[in-house]
Amino acid sequence: MTSAGRVAVPHLVSERAARPVFRRRPTQAGLAALLSLLATGIAPARAAAAPPPGCERPPAVQESQPSLEAVLTDAERLLACSAPQAALAVLARLSPGPGEGRRRWLVMQWRAAQAGLNHALAVQALTLLAEGDLRRLEDVALPLVRPGASDTGRASGGKPSTRSALDLLAEHLESLGQRQQAARVLLLSSTPGALTAARWGRAAALAEAMPLQQRDQILEQALEQAAAAGAWGLVAALLDQQLAAGVSDPASSRALERRLRLGERIDDAYGEWLQRRQLSGPDHEARNRELELLLRSPRLPGGHAGPAQLPDSPLSSPVQP
After folding, report:
1. Domain spans, the chain
2. How many angstroms separate the CA atoms of 26 and 174, rounded?
3. Domain spanning 63-148+160-188 has what CATH number?
4. Are 87 and 101 in contact (CB under 8 A)?
């Protein structure tokens, strides 16, 4: 306390730190170099953020009764500009009657709904495209990317990748939480082969409310399709799914026996080892030891480990005196 009766406040900042710091004023050359550096970094960012050519102008469809070609052209351009909601708004200005024009309009509506993650509208478009029979969608191939897009989603031949409308409808339904309905759609697949087997296997996994015996029957039919097509990798995956589904004991035992035999047949040492390690007994233990010797080390040729670290180059090593 001071002589005047006032409490002395301690200095929280030293006098030296409180002094103003004067820096050297930048030169004209330094400012020019800084501005050039900023421009070099900003120009590419502006170019990347700029909309593609043609995206600045509004849709050409303005008349009350636009033509189908004008609507589809504008919707295509808006999709290329990553504006699916605007494309849907343009498509809503027209509702074609039955025929090829309506089919093209529905495909464009599905593309816009898929791009905008509007799964409900996508389901509606695909359902209308089926014209009352969802089995027709199995033979309808829909493009996954727009013409002229980047290489992402393109097949090796350079053409846009396509997928069956039946698979796409099931995926949209699954996204909406309608797993049972998605399973029913996949079970409509009738083309013999591995594709139908994979769809039936997926349907069995989605139909959680279905009785286990019925799901096991679906998996058995899928196994027959996959085996007939020689898709042994798919057969192994379906057997693993059957074992994980917790079906009846006889079915589980039968699936396990087939899975172990298949592992030996297709040289799937890892898959066989995964199943055998859950079993006990001298025979299984002996086979497990054999399989462990067959399993490839990550560092052997073809393994998943990264390349070994190369020794230091003599040029990079420090020079010893």
Report:
1. 63-148+160-188
2. 62
3. 1.25.40
4. no
* CA–CA distance, 68 with 79 (Å, rounded to integer): 16
Task: Please tell me the distance from the alpha carbon of residue 161 to that of residue 30, in angstroms, as a whole number.
Answer: 53
For residues 129 and 154, what is the distance between their CA atoms, to the nearest angstrom? 24
**How far lies 191's CA from each of 135, 136, 195, 198, 219, in Å?**
10, 12, 8, 11, 16
Which residues lie across from 143 on neighbouring strands? 162
Please compute the mean of the pLDDT values over residues 24-35 and round it to a whole number.
70
Q: SS3 for 164?
A: strand
pTM of the complete model: 0.65
For residue 9, what pLDDT band results from cuts at 50, 70 and 90?
very low
- Among 16-30, 272-286, 306-320, the range scoring the smallest mean pLDDT is 306-320
- Give the closest residue to 75 by CA, choosing from 64, 65, 66, 83: 83
Question: What does the block give as tokens for 226?
Answer: 């996959």
221, pLDDT greater than 70: yes
- The Cα 219–Cα 198 span in angstroms is 10
Helix, strand, or coil (residue 310) = coil
- How many beta carbons lie within 10 A of that of residue 210, not counting itself? 16
